[in-house]
Amino acid sequence: MSEPLAVTAPLAGRLSLFRRRGTLAVGVFLLGAFIVLALGAPLIAPYDPIAQDAAARLQGPSWLHPFGTDNFGRDILSRVIWGTRIDLQIAIIGVLFPFIIGTTLGTVAGFFGGIVDAIFMRLVDIILAFPFLVLMLSIIAILGPGLGSFYIAMALVGWVSYARLIRAQMLALKNHDYAVAAVSLGFSRTRIMFRHLLPNAAAGSIVFAMSDAVLVLLSGAAISYLGLGVQPPIAEWGVMVAEGQPFVTTAWWITLFPGLSIVTLAFAFSMIGDGLADLFGVHE
Amino acid sequence: MHRYKFVLYRPLQFLPVLFGISIITFILVRLIPGDPARVLLGTRATPEAIARIREQYGLDEPFLVQYLYFLRNLADGEMGRSILYKIDVLKLILTRIEPTLMLVLCSVVLSVLIAVPVAAVAARNQGRFADQAIRVISTFGIGFPPFWLGLMLIILFSVKLDIFPVSGYGNTLPEKLTHLFLPSLTISLSLSTVLARSLRAAMVEALRSDVATAARARGMPESIVFWRHVLPNSLVPTVNLLAVNIGWLIGGTVVVETVFALPGMGQLLVRAIFSRDYMVVQGVAMVFACATVLINFLADIATVALDPRVKL
Fold it and tell me: ipTM of the assembly?
């Protein structure tokens, strides 16, 4: 994202360098904080996330309940902290499987070319013709609501972007001198594909994985909001927004804080993505 | 006119994709466990209805033959019947297209209205405070969940300020537009961040281009250079970006229609999933997919029309 350093002035140069590191640092720090919250939830959260308290229903933010309580008297802060576990998991698992599947298929298609590649690209075109969320929802409709269905649907749909990225890189890289040299040394195709070419092709996909994590997080939360993902009473940010919706005019804190958590975690991934893009010299 | 020749043959290239869309939607519904006739008709179907659907869809035939039956039914405009609404799926979808189409149109217009000035300010102050601020805000904006943003806009505009209705659609055009404002704004605030980023990059390039330099050399004021030369030259990549994001935009309408209770195709899809109205799920998925293909085609035409250098 950063501009070419042609802006010349030494100060601008230094500022830009600081910004590169700074962007990555802010992102890593925020993500680290969320990981700590997720792992330490039982120790950090002041209340049980699903314990109901009839005496403390719909209370606004106070010292006792910094983020207020919902209509069951559950502490919103504790639910937000426990929600970190689920939403972080959604972003990580929801990216990991498509990344692995897409990278493998894209590598093979780009390396072999020909009929394998042609069939592969048609499949990609067809999947891309469907609006992402519509195909996801259709698959979840068949598998039934739940987080497991979401991950399966994600793996079936999400690999396409990674495969396209890697394939394009492979097509360019496989004619480079070092690839030709590896072939003439008699290395196996598998070794050339995954040991020589893939490491050079992966930078773009890793950067993309970070912006994809934002998309996956938003989709997972949206599907849970619609009632087709994580099921209540489990504390998940999208579910919490849905539960707060009937009270949105009177008890704004029920929806505000889980939403802000999504925004902040998404921001962390975006910053890491921007920082890595600068570090690797990758441009969109 | 030969530049537009692709309008004639490009649809032929769509055939494999449309074919693929039909295969995927066919498989989707056949993957549901249980007797397909019961799946399609619901649990309370009469034996006569089941016999009829068995014959119509060739459910006793092999899988491949079933697919041919499915294609024949499609060619007849026959997408089955909704269990919940008791009418033909195609008719049902036709009644729901307008709100979704209007929502998409309003969102695109609003996004462009937001993105163009924002990108212009950022590009003309490249590297300075305004540019940096816009960059940070847009990085935040990408991560705003539409379902939550919609609720926050309801709190601000409907509850506190009481300017726009909370939900629903209305009957007359002005009524519809006031109902569509907040849903469109929800989608636009996310979409415009993506648009503004790419538009800014295109503008920065156009500001440095020979065209702009030549215009300045002729003594044109900077504002005219911008409106006459920079802006038109940066629009082409943006049109393509809109087309690339159309799938994402449609996904947004599904969520936003649910938040604002807009009676469009997205809301229909979500309700159909809950009521296991699989024919409707299948029909909506197929219509959305075909719409995406069509919009990409239209974007190709727009690209050729906007930039005389482009040949497809």
Answer: 0.86
Nearest chain B residue to A124 by CA distance is B17
Task: DSSP for A248-264, please give it.
Answer: TTT-THHHHHHHHHHHH
Structural domains in chain A, sorted by start? 19-51+58-280 (1.10.3720.10)
**DSSP secondary structure letters along B171-227:** SSHHHHHHHHHHHHHHHHHHHHHHHHHHHHHHHHHHHHSHHHHHHHHTT--HHHHII
- Whether residue A233 has a cis bond before it, omega within 30° of 0: yes
Q: How far apart, in whole angstroms, are the C-alpha atoms of residue A20 and residue A13?
A: 11
CA A73 to each of CA A224, A248, A250: distance values in angstroms, whole numbers, following the listed order: 21, 16, 15
Contact B96, B264 (CB under 8 A): yes
Q: How far apart are the first and last CA of chain A?
A: 8
pTM for the whole structure: 0.89
Residue spans of alpha helices (H) in A130-197 = 132-143, 147-173, 177-184, 189-191
Reported CATH class of domain B97-306 = mainly alpha
pLDDT tens-digit map of A244-261: 999 988 888 999 999 999
Could you tell me the CA-to-CA distances from B303 to A48, A217, B36, B183, B245 in Å, in that order?
56, 33, 44, 28, 15
Contacts of A153 in chain B (CB under 8 A): none
Asked if B258 is an interface residue toward chain A (Cβ–Cβ < 8 A), one would say: yes
CA–CA gap between residue A270 and residue A262 (Å, rounded): 12
Task: Write the pLDDT tens digit of every residue in A40-64.
Answer: 989 998 888 888 888 878 888 888 8
The Cα–Cα gap between A214 and A62 comes to: 31
Q: How far is A145 from chain B (nearest CA, A)?
A: 9
Q: Which residues of A touch B276 (CB under 8 A)?
A: 141
Among chain A residues, CA nearest to B147: A222
Residue A223 to residue B258: CA distance in whole angstroms: 11
How many Å separate Cα B238 from the centre of its chain? 15
Compute the distance between CA of residue B257 and CA of residue B266 in angstroms, rounded to an integer.
Answer: 6
Contacts of A122 in chain B (CB under 8 A): 16-17, 20
Q: CB of B12 within 8 Å of any CB in chain A?
A: no
Tokens (6 digits) for A10:
């030494």
- A211: closest CA of chain B, how far (Å): 9
